[in-house]
């Protein structure tokens, strides 16, 4: 592996640079997505409890100060692990959660967007994370099939979270699984500091939205940054990564960080070794030629 991806010294999330969340809260652009700490299909406890705790502690040791989570991972499992591993939390650690869904015993994902459900979800996150105020809460929207919510209004749902923010239970607000119209609508109600949508090197429908977020100082946090439940499989990506002496998924993460200064990367894993590989991607610097070749991968 080349020095771009790793060296004798430990990788560090700070190598990706920083972003001011809401113009005031500094986070390293390389973060960690905690979803995969739960069991299969994101239900139940982890396969290896000790390793899960180790992943969280090692992430913080390697400079991660932005952890993405949700109380519906498990459900409740991941937030309980975060509390066990890291509470009392470092002063600079930002915990970002999301509400708007619930899990059923068969592992299905259903919308939970009523005022009562959203309020209950925020209080569940507060309790399970053992905090008095959540650093940021994303409102996760979905259409009738669970896909991006690009039509319709989110005003009623976002107003609920805005009210909880006014009560001091939430610091920052974000939106997830939305389009530009929904983002603009939310901004009329309360400040939006982050957008979390599906986006990666092979799925780039949100390119215009990312540019718009960057222009407004809004963070864009892609979920499934390396393909999600089906990791990216692309021979050209593999070839370019091999030529650079890095892993394919490391290259995909590095591309995200190069794509926009507003992008916050939150690759997830349940392995300490894999965590360190992901964070090492923060040191990779792509050339103009690299970016031109990688731009041809979009679907």
What do these coordinates show?
With 299 residues, the protein is of the alpha/beta class. It has a single domain (13-297), classed as NADP-dependent oxidoreductase domain (TIM Barrel, Alpha-Beta Barrel), CATH 3.20.20. It is built from ten helices and eleven strands. The chain has helices at 49-61, 77-86, 115-129, 155-166, 180-187, 207-216, 235-244, 248-259, 272-280, 288-294, and strands at residues 18-21, 25-28, 32-33, 66-68, 94-99, 101-103, 109-111, 134-140, 170-176, 194-196, 219-220. Helix 1 (49-61) packs across helix 2, helix 3 packs across helix 4 (155-166) and helix 7 packs across helix 8 (248-259).
Give a brief outline of the structure.
With 299 residues, the chain is of the alpha/beta class. It has ten helices and eleven strands. The longest helix is centred in the middle third of the chain and has 15 residues, at 115-129.
Instruction: Say how many strands there are.
Output: 11
The CATH topology turns out to be: TIM Barrel
Residue-averaged pLDDT:
93
The CATH architecture would be Alpha-Beta Barrel
Uncertain spans: 1-8
- Estimate the strand proportion: 5-15%
Helical region count?
10
CATH 4th-level superfamily: NADP-dependent oxidoreductase domain
Along the chain, the helix and strand elements come as: EEEHEHEEEHEHEHEHEHHHH
Shape, principal axes of CA atoms? globular
Domains, number: 1
| Strand ordering within the main sheet | 3-4-5-8-9-10-11
Q: Give the CATH level 1 class.
A: Alpha Beta
């Amino acid at each position: 592996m080349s020095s771009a991806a790793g060296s004798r010294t430990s990788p560090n999330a700070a190598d990706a640079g920083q972003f001011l969340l809401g113009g005031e809260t500094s986070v390293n652009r390389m973060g960690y997505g905690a979803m995969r700490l739960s069991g299969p299909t994101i239900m139940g406890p982890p396969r290896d409890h000790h390793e899960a705790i180790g992943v969280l502690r090692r992430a913080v040791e390697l400079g991660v100060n932005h952890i993405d989570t949700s109380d519906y991972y498990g459900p409740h499992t991941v937030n309980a692990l975060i509390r066990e591993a890291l509470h009392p939390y470092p002063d600079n650690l930002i915990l970002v959660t999301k509400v708007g869904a619930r899990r059923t015993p068969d592992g299905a994902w259903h919308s939970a967007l009523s005022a009562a459900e959203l309020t209950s979800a925020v209080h569940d996150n507060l309790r399970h994370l053992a905090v008095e105020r959540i650093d940021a809460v994303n409102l996760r929207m979905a259409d009738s099939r669970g896909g991006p919510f690009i039509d319709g209004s989110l005003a009623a749902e976002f107003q609920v979270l805005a009210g909880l923010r006014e009560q001091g239970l939430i610091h920052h607000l974000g939106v997830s699984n939305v389009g530009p119209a929904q983002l603009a609508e939310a901004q009329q109600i309360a400040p939006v500091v982050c957008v979390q949508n599906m986006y990666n090197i092979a799925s780039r429908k949100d390119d215009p939205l990312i540019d718009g977020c960057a222009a407004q100082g809004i963070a864009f946090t892609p979920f499934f940054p390396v393909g999600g439940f089906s990791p990216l499989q692309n021979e050209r990506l593999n070839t370019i990564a091999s030529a650079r002496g890095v892993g394919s998924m490391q290259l995909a993460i590095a591309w995200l960080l190069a794509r926009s200064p507003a992008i916050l990367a939150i690759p997830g894993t349940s392995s300490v070794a894999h965590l360190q590989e992901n964070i090492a991607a923060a040191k990779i610097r792509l050339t103009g030629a690299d970016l031109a070749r990688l731009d041809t991968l979009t679907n």
